[in-house]
Specification:
37% of the residues lie in helices and 11% in strands. With 207 residues, the chain is α+β, with helices and mostly antiparallel strands. A three-stranded antiparallel sheet has the order 1-5-6, with no helix packed on it. Strands 2-4-3 form a three-stranded antiparallel sheet, with no helix packed on it.
Length: 207
């Protein structure tokens, strides 16, 4: 059994204008991943889907995709913006490797998704413990905000449908935990839905 290694390099940020890198603000996200142990939790959760000779850890690839989305990416290929800064993000898988991972996880019958959710729940518990009295459940209650957001599709995408605003696309339902007046909503769950799904569908809210 080998000791787990860090998924991302340790980066020191300073404002003297030397050794400038793009996406420097993402260091906060990377440090959050490290502090909460999300990298190790996701890596462990996806270990069953790692092939014996794999160079890249599936958990690291998945986190890199999430970071790319947080930095404004909207497709798998946008992971390239991380690949351009190895000093910040470490080794980043190639586009074909990323696509192969998605192809590997997709037919798992929900097992991979359940493993990821379990890892996130474990890390969330750690993060809320670190937040102490500022955690969303500090007063014994947890407030969840449900919100449907229209996402426009400019072509005939899977699951796209006409929306109530006479556009075309999707209407995912999002669930956020309220962190109070001094914080922001923490995304907890999302349900992908066609554009004609209702905003106030009770069954979807319960799910």
């Amino acid at each position: 059994m080998r000791a787990p290694t860090a998924s991302y390099p340790r980066v020191r940020v300073q404002g003297d204008g030397r050794q400038v890198v793009s996406q420097a603000g993402s260091v906060l996200l990377v440090e959050t991943v490290r502090k909460t142990g999300l990298d190790q939790a996701i890596s462990t959760a996806l270990a069953p889907w790692r092939t014996p000779r794999a160079v890249y850890d599936p958990g690291k690839i998945l986190l890199d995709i999430a970071l790319a989305v947080a930095l404004g990416g909207d497709c798998l290929a946008d992971i390239g913006m991380l690949r351009a800064e190895p000093a910040v993000f470490g080794p980043v898988a190639s586009d074909p490797t990323v696509s192969r991972l998605i192809d590997t996880l997709a037919p798992s019958g929900g097992k991979a998704l359940q493993a990821i959710r379990a890892a996130r729940a474990e890390v969330r518990q750690c993060a809320w413990k670190l937040a102490d009295r500022k955690a969303p459940d500090a007063d014994g209650t947890v407030t969840v905000d449900l919100d449907g957001v229209l996402v426009i599709a400019h072509s005939d995408k899977e699951g796209a449908a006409p929306t109530w605003k006479r556009t075309y696309g999707h209407h995912p339902l999002m669930g956020f935990v309220d962190h109070g007046p001094g914080g922001t909503g923490e995304p907890m769950a999302a349900m992908l839905r066609p554009g004609n799904a209702g905003s106030n569908t009770a069954a979807d809210h319960i799910t």
